[in-house]
């Protein structure tokens, strides 16, 4: 596993044009597989349009303490894109007026943004119904200054959503890096200790499962059962829900697919698993994604492909929910990742 | 025509067998789908049985399919290898148990 981002390595795939070209050429250009647009049109679902906005997802920066091999953000310690306090203030202004019921902070490791705690404190005052922070767990163990994060999250009634690719050490470390499994287990114990993830606790702790390889996730409920049993029996750890998320063929996961000669088979699998009923609930229909520099996107994946919203309003500084809601969602072949099988979103399956 | 007997791409074309015999093809795929549903055995257990049988019948398509299926279900490589050994043990046992026939025949023919 590389310990540097595609950007740092100056890999060709760090350019979004290169990724978009790959996703449109080859099997999709020669007609072997239908494009996502063609597939949507088959079931009269093109153009894809938003429904009511429910989730405001804010990416506070691409810096991370980990360099996971499947990361769609291409995050890592070498990424310097960090949301400024000024942009955070613009976000807060929007949070105060939005109709969305969920605020979802992500990164990178959002906790590495120097203004993260101030932002959480301010945002929690607004009283939004569900306030999610996507924490990678190991950050809690990474440095003394992060050790009190479980208490901090508790104080602000933050809903913690964390990644955990498997309940065994081998698979977890292969995807996320050496030692990640043990640190994640320690962090989960600390979250449990302050009440997170315990049965009937209001302190929500959910886990995210991404397959560690070129395959799709299986049934979310049965996976949750397996995760719960293994983590409880082996480590005494409890959590609430498991979200099974499909890896989308972009960024470092795309790099892996190409390098391991799995790209075409993976795209075949995604297209074959296309589920028309997952389309209507796909997350871009109820989410706006904000980047570290304030640009607006249909989802975090489009953000990483630099596909801004197709709207007159493109930046948080000019945010207007009514105008934004009246847009067509920007799509490409990576979107097949969210419509495969039971569908996939940052909140797990959708169908 | 490919110059090999097996082509990984043929697995995706499996449903095409119905084109030359629609009724039997449909009946087979319907049966196949039902077999692997959750039942008295879990779908996970059936996936491991399928993987073991895939090795015993030496079907490269089935091995590809059920290795991927196992990964998707979170089945570990240790579980998969144990399933393969279970299949292999039965297969070698089936060979070896014929040794009794050989022994009986040997004894019958020997003075």
Detailed description of the structure:
The complex is a heterodimer of chains A (351) and B (111). Chain A has one domain: Alpha-Beta Barrel (TIM Barrel), CATH 3.20.20.70. Helices cover 36% and strands 10% of the residues of chain A. Chain A contains 15 helices and 8 strands. In chain A, strands 6-5-4-3-2-1-7-8 form an 8-stranded mixed sheet. In chain A, β1 (55-59), α3 (85-97) and β2 form a beta-alpha-beta unit. In chain A, α3 runs parallel beside α4 (116-126). Chain A is globular and about 55 Å long. Chain A starts with 15 loop residues before the first helix and ends in a 12-residue tail after the last helix. Chain B has a single domain (18-109), classed as AhpD-like (Up-down Bundle). Helices cover 67% and strands 0% of the residues of chain B. Chain B is built from 4 helices and no strands. The radius of gyration of chain B is 19 Å and the shape is extended.
Topology:
The complex is a heterodimer of chains A (351) and B (111).
Chain A: H1 16-24, H2 36-42, E1 55-59, H3 85-97, E2 102-106, H4 116-126, E3 130-135, H5 138-142, H6 149-155, E4 159-163, H7 169-176, H8 180-193, E5 205-209, H9 220-235, E6 242-244, H10 251-259, H11 263-272, H12 276-279, E7 287-290, E8 296-297, H13 300-304, H14 321-325, H15 336-339
Parallel strand pairs in A: 1-2, 1-7, 2-3, 3-4, 4-5, 5-6
Antiparallel strand pairs in A: 7-8
Chain B: H1 22-35, H2 43-56, H3 60-72, H4 77-109
């Amino acid at each position: 596993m590389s310990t540097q981002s595609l950007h740092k390595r100056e890999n060709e795939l760090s350019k979004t044009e290169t990724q978009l070209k790959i996703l449109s050429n080859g099997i999709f250009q020669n007609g072997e597989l239908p494009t996502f647009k063609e597939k949507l049109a088959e079931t009269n679902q093109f153009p894809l349009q938003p429904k009511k906005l429910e989730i405001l997802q804010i990416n506070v920066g691409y810096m991370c303490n980990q360099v996971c091999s499947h990361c769609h953000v291409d995050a890592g310690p070498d990424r310097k894109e960090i949301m400024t306090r000024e942009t955070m203030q613009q976000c807060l202004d929007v949070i105060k007026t939005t109709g969305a019921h969920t605020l979802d902070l992500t990164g990178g490791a959002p906790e590495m943004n120097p203004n993260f705690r101030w932002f959480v404190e301010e945002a929690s005052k607004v009283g939004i119904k569900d306030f999610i922070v996507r924490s990678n767990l190991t950050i809690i163990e990474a440095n003394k200054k992060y050790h009190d994060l479980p208490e901090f999250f508790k104080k602000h009634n933050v809903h913690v959503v964390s990644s955990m690719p498997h309940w065994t050490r081998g698979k977890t470390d292969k995807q996320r890096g050496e030692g990640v499994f043990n640190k994640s287990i320690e962090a989960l114990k600390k979250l449990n200790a302050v009440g997170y993830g315990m049965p009937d606790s209001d302190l929500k702790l959910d886990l995210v499962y991404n397959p560690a390889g070129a395959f799709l996730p299986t049934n979310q409920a049965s996976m949750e059962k397996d995760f719960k049993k293994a983590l409880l029996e082996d480590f005494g750890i409890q959590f609430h829900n498991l979200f099974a998320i499909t890896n989308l063929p972009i960024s470092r996961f795309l790099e892996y697919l190409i390098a391991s000669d799995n790209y075409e088979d993976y795209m075949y699998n995604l297209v074959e698993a296309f589920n028309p009923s997952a389309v209507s609930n796909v997350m871009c229909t109820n989410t706006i994604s904000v980047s570290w520099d304030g640009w607006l996107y249909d989802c975090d994946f489009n953000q990483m492909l630099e596909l801004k919203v197709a709207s007159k309003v493109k930046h948080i500084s000019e945010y207007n929910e009514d105008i934004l809601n009246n847009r067509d969602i920007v799509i490409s072949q990576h979107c097949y990742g969210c419509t495969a099988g039971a569908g996939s979103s940052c909140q797990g399956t959708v169908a | 025509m490919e110059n090999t007997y097996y082509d990984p791409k043929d697995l995706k074309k499996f449903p095409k067998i119905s084109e030359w015999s629609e009724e039997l093809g449909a009946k087979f795929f319907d049966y196949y789908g039902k077999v692997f549903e959750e039942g008295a055995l879990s779908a996970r257990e059936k996936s491991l049985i399928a993987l073991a049988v895939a090795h015993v019948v030496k079907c490269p398509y089935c091995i590809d399919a059920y290795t991927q299926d196992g990964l998707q279900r979170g089945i570990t490589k240790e579980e998969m290898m144990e399933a393969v050994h279970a299949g292999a043990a039965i297969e070698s046992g089936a060979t070896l148990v014929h040794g009794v026939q050989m022994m009986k025949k040997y004894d019958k023919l020997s003075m």
